[in-house]
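Lab notes, practical 5.
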Amino acid sequence: MILIKFGGSVITDKSKYHTFNAEYVKNMCNEIRESGKKIIIVHGAGSFGHILAKKNNLDEGYSCPTQIPAVAQVCYDVRELNSMVVKELNNAGIPAVSVPTGSCFMMKNKKLIMKDVSVLKSLYNCGIMPVMFGDVVMDEKLRFGICSGDQIIEKLTKIFNPSRVIFVSDVDGLYDDDPQNNPNARLIKELSRSTFDKVSTDITVTDVTGGIREKIETMFRICSDSCDCVLVNGTVKGRLLSLLNGEKVMCTTIRRD
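Output from the prediction step:
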């Protein structure tokens, strides 16, 4: 089976609060159905979560009572986003249901810990796709914290042992420099630890769940002899389908040295 992370940069406009990119999501869902692969999806919060979370410092845990309404609003917003993603999956002919992150996981000082994954396994074994998402979850030490889609993906790899993990973003992959500022920036097709240490990280747009460096570090932790990780552009129609079908596409593949 394959795990796919829909990045917030693809499914939302991260610069505009509460903005859903319906066309991209619809295309990706149709491509997943067409591939016929067994897949579980996790998605980011994008502009439905990051803007309010950052404004109210929710990633640092509880500090004052004024954060509480923001926690409730972010939880409401990301569930609304999740319902739109799930709707597109079902419209594409993929039986999918929402599984709120807090129903399976908690955190302890920002570290995600498993709580009860029996629902996830039961849904998957029934042929129903569980769809999880970046969210505010309870933290045993900080009261609450931000759980990113990348953290969820890392935990799910331990539960389902996927053959591949695909991170769908709004870029073609990882470059050796910022392609917006440097026209000679080169796409890195295969990334190893030694290569990554030489790559500039100034291209990162930081949000409350970390930037590209943290994402790549997560991918290195996931990689094994039986599982590789791929960073691919989901805004290009047909590219995800081609990747799922085993064709060569423009992307960055992360492998262990």
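Observations recorded by the TA: The CA atoms of residues 1 and 38 lie 5 Å apart. Residues 67-91 form the longest helix (25 residues).
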